[in-house]
């Protein structure tokens, strides 16, 4: 009995000492924002802590809330799916850089239609969400789908009801395809939808589309893939119809011209390239250029440097597209504006 | 203190133990605390919404636009959705709840009263997110495949009804939200009604039976008049829950920014739009201010409902 007690006591002491030494080595960094990027950041956090000694505490509170928190400096970095405009970056003394890229899939529920059997174009998609096209056998859709038997079912457009970076990417894409969409609705994390029904979260959109015959919706590629949703082919900038595959997402990321944009605020929608998927976007991180503690900003840079160097395979396994390595180098160069040496 | 010492030994001393003033103080503080809490809540919502009220003025109340891109906000759609779903839910819930309470207090055999009573109380304790998921995965498919197509076909061609029950059958919408709310508020109202029906002194009811009243006549002429205030209180409790319900409604209402006479159409409520839009509203933005203004309006609606129920009751109370 006495032995057991002694052993437990020793164990406790050893544990406490171990925990202390561990804490002394590990540096805590905190981030908040984009829920779209949360899976990759937490996976990178787990995988990198042994090599870098950095422990990431990331809260997926939504892009808007993430921007609020970094503006108030309550976290070490903020994360947003929507690039922050240059004047806001200057006003709040922030530096912005992308981390990974994600595609957005179009999902449908048309009786008797298999995945990637139906082809759609940007203008048709905009007309569906504007309420101009209301039946699946509309002439415009039939014209580009010869040989596909489309039913007369009413189209039921489904959109995200909560504010979401995915909605920003989707509405921004529709704006590039339809002047009417651009002037009437615009692009944001939540918009005033002319028609359709709203559902909460990616799972809500997928569930609603699955339940309504004739339903159409949009979801992150990773989510659509994991849940085996019925996707469609889209016509890209080059005029080719492509299916939402990893190769198509990568082609789009590689085709983009990163050199011309300021603050890396690139719009990856509707990029050239015969194999490019037209709807995708980067997700961004915001770092203060006047950090309270330079050690913290240095650790954030170190963390993402690890992600850029070693995290590409993890990103691909989660269906995110890593940035081109030239962009990685450009970001590393831009980090010089943020105090704190790695 | 001196007084207390002086009084020691007299018969009054028992009433002035130190515990009494402490208890009175705590009780008074609790009362004042509620007032302060409510006051500060209203005030902070109003101050938060001031930016929106200033910008849009009275048109905030009647504008049906909710456009985050162009920063034009109005409350009419969510107010309409909130009031429609809650009132519809009450219309459906009150008769059911009355039936349950009537059955439990007057008709049910003794062995059934406990299990049914416990079931009602248990339903009232179920978290609202459960009702939301149940509504989305069970009620919505049933509505979209069976109930809505049938009703749409049945009322097709009949004026007014034709517009109230129109397609396409999404399954989600105001009517489904009202149905889920009904299920949520029935236990509240039924539990309150049963409890107050049981407070009616048996001698009243027995006298009525004695002069030859039927069970229904006893209910209508003795039990209901005797318990009217508490019954209305129970209904108001249910209405309060329906007005402020967030998650369950968000799941099934369809969340669109349009006013429609069509009960199968999508809409939103104040609580659902606040829950959905809040995370994406930057601090100090007009959108955040509009959401807080919506919260203030919900407060005012609840207050009006309470005031109306009080005034409705007052003249009869004097009799």
Structural description of this entry:
The complex is a heterodimer of chains A (342) and B (319). Chain A is 43% helix and 19% strand. Chain A is α/β, with parallel strands linked by helices and 342 residues long. Chain B is globular, with a radius of gyration of 25 Å. With 319 residues, chain B is mostly helical. Chain B folds into two domains: 1-48; 58-317, MetI-like fold, CATH 1.10.3720. Chains A and B meet through α3, β7 and α9 of A and β1, α6 and α12 of B.
Keywords for this entry:
heterodimer, A: about 350 residues, alpha/beta, D-Maltodextrin-Binding Protein, domain 2, nine-stranded mixed sheet, three-stranded mixed sheet, 14 helices, B: about 325 residues, mainly alpha, MetI-like fold, 2 domains, two-stranded antiparallel sheet, 13 helices, 2 strands, globular, disordered N terminus
CATH superfamily of the largest domain in chain B: MetI-like
The radius of gyration computed from the alpha-carbon positions of chain A, rounded to a whole number of angstroms, is: 23 Å
Radius of gyration of chain B: 25 Å
Largest sheet of chain A: 9 strands, mixed
The largest sheet of chain B has its strands arranged as 1-2
Count every helix of chain B, treating DSSP H or I runs of 4 or more residues as helices: 13
E-strand count of chain B: 2
Number of domains of chain A: 2
Strand percentage of chain B lies at under 5%
Number of domains of chain B: 2
Distance between termini of chain B?
A: 48 Å
CATH architecture of the largest domain in chain B: Orthogonal Bundle
Instruction: Kindly report the CATH topology of the largest domain in chain B.
Output: MetI-like fold
The CATH topology of the largest domain in chain A is D-Maltodextrin-Binding Protein, domain 2
Content of β-strand of chain A = 15-25%
CATH architecture of the largest domain in chain A: 3-Layer(aba) Sandwich
Order of helices and strands of chain B: HHHEEHHHHHHHHHH
* Structural class assignment of chain B: mainly alpha
At the fourth level of CATH, the homologous superfamily of the largest domain in chain A is: Periplasmic binding protein-like II
Q: Hey, which two chains have the biggest interface? A: A-B, 36 and 33 residues
Low-pLDDT segments of chain B: 1-10
